[in-house]
Amino acid sequence: MRTIKCILLGLIGIAFFVSCKKEFSSDLPLPSQLSPSLFVVNNNNIVLAIDPKTGYKKWEYKVDNKVTATPVVVAGKLVVVDVAGKLYSINRIDGKLDRSLTLGAAVTGTPLVIDDSRLAVSVGNDVKMLNPSDGFNTVWQFGAGVPVTTSLAKNTIDTSDTLQIFFVAGSSVFAVRANDGVLTWRRDVAGAGIFNSSICAANHHYLYAGNDDGKLYAFNSRNGSSFWSYQTGAAIQSSPVSVGGNIMAGSNDRNFYSVDSATGLLRWKVVAGDRILSSPFVFEQNVYFGCNDFNLYTVNIIDGTLKWKSLAFGTLVTSPLVYNKVAYINSHDNNVYAFDSETGEQKWIYNTNGHMVASMILDNLTEVIVPSISGNNSF
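Predicted structure:
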């Protein structure tokens, strides 16, 4: 019938072109392929796209090895890198592989998107700058001399226009120029243990990172000199975030801390039921973090009062994220959870059939909401 109608219109001699292609009204929902997606990776090496509104699976793709790095979106593709250093560029709409390549060494930290032609990745003892728009060819490579296992962060120094890549490796802090990979400075931190917390470079003047010695460190971004340190009771593997003068991170001593950015003095702390490995996420007036006691916590940034906590069925070591008043987090119990960000009421749960150590991202097709694994979000 549709073909006949098109023929009849042509026979009438209509002076303008009539398309028989189905059009979608602007007030109708988008087809599922063109709707927002949560991108999740589990320990069965499965990459999944999940509808953030309904919790239904849209597609899945199997990679070769375990993934600990959070996926990223760059040059229109979903990029996943596994622990063996294999990079996968995946069509984020249908889940089909665009290309893959081997980077040469282990990758555990999340890649850093500079722009569509620059993607920085920590690979073994090196940081590599790749060009996603040119087959992920290497633009430059910097050798740190020690394994770079944490995620990278970016910012400029003071009023400089020169973009820097900041990272911690071993017991040292590094600043490398983003345009050519030349070392700006390196600071070996006397008395420090290993940095297993990724660095926060949320402002132009200071950097923040937690250490296995239990200290939360503040560094001067000009040269890496120590500004202050705050001692907690156990190792800090939760990556700090910087919001409104609050430097916030969890500790293995079962406390979540807010430290004053100017003085390094404690503003407040929240006692949890177990270690806090999850890196926090800030949305509006609240900070969200997971805990090994199976709970997702939501705390007021100003005074540290607990707004709500919601129970999962496994430890929560990944970073949560919040979008459209919904808080999302994945768990060692194989499930992805969606909670109302205001009340903590569970909205849906999806079983991925594998536990998750990589944080998820949310792609709404115009922007990507990323967790705070490097503490580098612009809140």
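Summary: The chain has one domain: 2-369.
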